[in-house]
Specification:
- The strands form 2 sheets. This protein has a 7-stranded mixed beta sheet with strand order 3-2-1-4-5-7-6. The protein has a 7-stranded mixed beta sheet with strand order 10-11-9-8-12-13-14.
- The longest helix is centred in the middle third of the chain and has 27 residues.
- It has 12 helices and 14 strands.
- Strand 6 and strand 7 form a beta hairpin.
- The protein starts with a helix and ends with a strand.
- By secondary structure, it is α/β, with parallel strands linked by helices.
């Protein structure tokens, strides 16, 4: 943002869903004014206490934006990472951004890309935190309805494939439309994201993943082999519960996070242990639940090859590695 858009000390940077101030701390280091909006009070307190980031503990929307403007606060750079898909009332949220944004201000937002969800059959990312699954086509329409225009967009690998969009007021002539926007829209049209049949077909695709995964696990268990899971992630719980996989298939799930160890996964009741238990039990197969991190996880657990262990990847196709 500093290099491409000239963000400097004259900018008021506001981040919606700022968490513990991790991103804003880097603007603050450059003496750029920052303000965080984080409804989780305990997390906002960490931002204030440990990083000295001024943080408001409220949900963002039009009313809060009006309150800020009444106090002569406007955002020259307005940031929202992995929050747009999480809000129950997306129109109120975008309306609030329109109100809070300075006349020559810039919005940048990142969210999981619906195109990847459909094409890569990422059904396990559909869970309670997400109210929306967004394409650029849809976000462009919502922003347009609230007087905002998207002038650039980048495709990113995070969360199995995300979009980062850049927007400003419709009346702002400071930012020119970039070719990336049309390129992404063309990809979405080619994938028929505007056709209901695409979503009906998606239903059949995820059923096939369920059948293929269950068939593999049944075959492995009938042969007397041991299977464990790796990564007690939210997407993993969605996958396991949708497929009806419990500890009759998976002995345990290993996770590096000590706060998750010595617990049971919701629904499936599979126990969670430290990765140390992998060496102790020497499983024949490791089902990688956070498949978006498979390269990193395979690199970390490559030692299972010592006893001819293999990895199971469930999405976008069930495969052995």
């Amino acid at each position: 943002m500093l290099e491409t858009y000239g963000v400097n000390k004259s900018f008021q940077v506001v981040e919606i869903a700022s968490n513990d101030g991790y991103l804003l701390q880097y603007f603050k280091e450059k003496d750029i004014p920052v303000l965080g909006i984080e409804p989780a009070k305990n997390v906002a307190e960490v931002a204030r206490r440990e990083r000295n980031i001024p943080t408001i503990s409220e949900f963002f929307g039009a009313n809060l934006a009006k309150k800020f403007r009444h106090e002569n606060i406007s955002a020259k750079l307005l940031i929202g990472n992995n929050v747009l898909a999480h809000v129950p009332n997306i129109n109120d949220f975008v309306s609030g951004m329109k109100i809070l944004l300075a006349d020559d201000g810039l919005i940048t937002m990142e969210f999981p890309h619906l195109l990847n969800l459909i094409e890569q059959k990422q059904f396990d990312t559909i869970y309670h935190e997400h109210f929306s699954y967004l394409s650029l086509q849809t976000v462009e329409k919502i922003f347009d309805a609230h007087g905002l225009k998207i002038f650039d967009g980048h495709e990113l690998p995070t969360h199995g494939g995300s979009l980062r969009i850049f927007a400003c007021h419709k009346a702002c002539g400071k930012y020119s439309l970039q070719d990336n926007v049309e390129k992404i829209l063309d990809k979405e049209k080619a994938a028929h994201l505007d056709d209901l049949k695409t979503y009906l077909k998606f239903d059949g695709n995820i059923r096939n993943i369920k059948y293929d995964l269950l068939s593999l696990l049944i075959e492995v268990k009938r042969s007397g082999k041991k299977i464990i899971g790796y990564g007690a992630a939210a997407k993993g719980n969605t996958l396991l519960n949708y497929c009806g996989i419990g500890n009759e298939f998976i002995d345990f799930v290993a996770d590096k996070n000590p706060h998750k160890q010595q617990t049971l996964l919701p629904g499936s009741r599979i126990p969670v242990f430290s990765p140390d238990k992998i060496v102790e039990t020497k499983p024949n197969y490791v089902l990688i639940l956070p498949w978006n991190l498979k390269a990193e996880i395979i690199s970390q657990l490559n030692y299972i090859r010592e006893w001819d262990g293999k990895f199971i990847i469930p999405i976008p196709e069930v495969m052995l590695l």
